[in-house]
C-alpha cells in the first residue's frame, strides 16, 4: 500500500511552513552556501542555482508524492523571507516513524526559529498523520542542533559511532572530510506535553495550526 502526505501549510506565531516555490530559488541558493550548513550537511558545495532548481522542481515534490517524506520551506510571516528548511525523511508508514532535519539561514539564527518550526512540524505529524515517533540525528560537534533537540523535548537514546562525515574549511578555501559520531534523539507524542511554543492557531481554535491543500 502506497501512502502519501498531503500538501500542507503550517502556521505558527511567526512562521509559515509550506512547500517550496519557484520564487524561493534565489534565497535557497544563498542560504545553502553558508559555511555552517556546508559543514554539517551533505548538501553540494558550492550550492548552485541548478541545485536549487532541482530541489524545488523535482526532488522536494517527489518526496511528498511518493510518500518518502515532506520538505517544508520555513518563511518568516512578517517579511516573507526564507528562514530555513524542515525535512521529514526515512519515513516508515508501518510503524509511523520518521526522521527530521532542519537548516536555518545565517541571518535568522538565534531567534528560536528552528525550535518553533520543528515543534509545529512534530505536532502536525503526531496529530494529523498519527505518527508515533520522530527521530533526530545530530553530529557530535553540532551543539546548536543538540540544544534545539533538547528544547523541543527530545530524549537522547545513544550514539552511532563514526556514522557521519562532517566538513571542515581549510586555509586555502577548500573543505576536508572528517568522520564523526551521531547522537540519536527521539520524540514521542507524550514528550510534547508541557513543551511551549504551540502554533498560534492551535491556541485560538483548539486544533493544530495547519491547512491541507489537497
Automatic annotation (TrEMBL):
Domain N-acetyltransferase positions: 15-171
Matches recorded under PROSITE patterns: GNAT
Coiled coil: none
Matches recorded under PANTHER family: ACETYLTRANSFERASE, RIBOSOMAL-PROTEIN-SERINE ACETYLTRANSFERASE
Protein name listed in UniProt: GNAT family N-acetyltransferase
Species of provenance: Streptomyces pyxinae
Amino acid at each position: 500500500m502506497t501512502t502519501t502526505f498531503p500538501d500542507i501549510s503550517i502556521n505558527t506565531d511567526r512562521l509559515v511552513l509550506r512547500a517550496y516555490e519557484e520564487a524561493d530559488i534565489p534565497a535557497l541558493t544563498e542560504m545553502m552556501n553558508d559555511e555552517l550548513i556546508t559543514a554539517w550537511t551533505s548538501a553540494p558545495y558550492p550550492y548552485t542555482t541548478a541545485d536549487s532548481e532541482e530541489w524545488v522542481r523535482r526532488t522536494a515534490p517527489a518526496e511528498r508524492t511518493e510518500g518518502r517524506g515532506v520538505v517544508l520551506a520555513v518563511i518568516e510571516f512578517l517579511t516573507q523571507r526564507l528562514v530555513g528548511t524542515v525535512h521529514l525523511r526515512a519515513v516508515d508508514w508501518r510503524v509511523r516513524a520518521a526522521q527530521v532535519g532542519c537548516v536555518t539561514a545565517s541571518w535568522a539564527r538565534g531567534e528560536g526559529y528552528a525550535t518553533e518550526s520543528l515543534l509545529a512540524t512534530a505536532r502536525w505529524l503526531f496529530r494529523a498523520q498519527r505518527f508515533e515517533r520522530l527521530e533526530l540525528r545530530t553530529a557530535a560537534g553540532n551543539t546548536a542542533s543538540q540544544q534545539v533537540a533538547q528544547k523541543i523535548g527530545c530524549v537522547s537514546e545513544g550514539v552511532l559511532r563514526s556514522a557521519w562525515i562532517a566538513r571542515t574549511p581549510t586555509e586555502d578555501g577548500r573543505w576536508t572530510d572528517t568522520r564523526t559520531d551521531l547522537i540519536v534523539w527521539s520524540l514521542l507524542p507524550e514528550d510534547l506535553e508541557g513543551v511551549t511554543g504551540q502554533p498560534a492557531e492551535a491556541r485560538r481554535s483548539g486544533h493544530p495550526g495547519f491547512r491541507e491543500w489537497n
